[in-house]
From TrEMBL:
Highest taxon of the lineage: Bacteria
Domain HTH cro/C1-type: 75-123
Protein name per the record: Helix-turn-helix domain protein
Species of the source: Arcticibacter svalbardensis MN12-7
SUPFAM superfamilies hit by this protein: lambda repressor-like DNA-binding domains
GO molecular function, one term: DNA binding
Family annotation (Pfam families): HTH_3
Record-linked InterPro entries: Cro/C1-type_HTH, Lambda_DNA-bd_dom_sf
Length: 127
């Protein structure tokens, strides 16, 4: 029986995509049956959300630091854990910043600037 999964906002969509990439980075042989069911349900929900909601909106540029980071992760097929390693920060810290539970600090902003090559003005305008 397929697991029901629904995405109700763009933020939830982005969080779901991060979870999908985290599961995909486990490698197929390391996935449990529950992981496979969850991955299937989340992927189907993401596709529905893309078709029904995102395709109706004109393409727009990310307008927040978390959106830029999530886009970078998506385009480079990076999980949060892998990006956190590349930025030299802990996964919980990155997760908290992306979900708005924590403000970005100077070491994080420097790491993002160096890794993502963002315009410093964009960074300063969006913290």
């Amino acid at each position: 029986m397929a697991m029901d999964y629904a995405i109700n906002s763009e933020k939830h969509y982005h969080e779901t995509m991060v979870q999908i990439y985290d599961l995909m980075n486990k490698d197929e042989e390391n996935l449990t049956e529950a992981d496979v069911k969850k991955l299937t349900a989340m992927t189907s929900a993401a596709e529905r959300f893309e078709d029904e909601v995102l395709e109706l909106k004109p393409t727009r540029q990310p307008n927040s630091l978390p959106e830029v980071i999530e886009l970078f992760m998506f385009e480079n097929k990076l999980s949060q854990a892998r990006l956190a390693d590349e930025l030299g920060i802990g996964k919980p810290k990155l997760s908290q910043i992306l979900t708005g539970k924590r403000k970005p600090d100077v070491p994080f902003l420097k790491a993002v600037y160096n890794k993502l090559r963002l315009d410093p003005k964009f960074i300063m305008d969006h913290i």
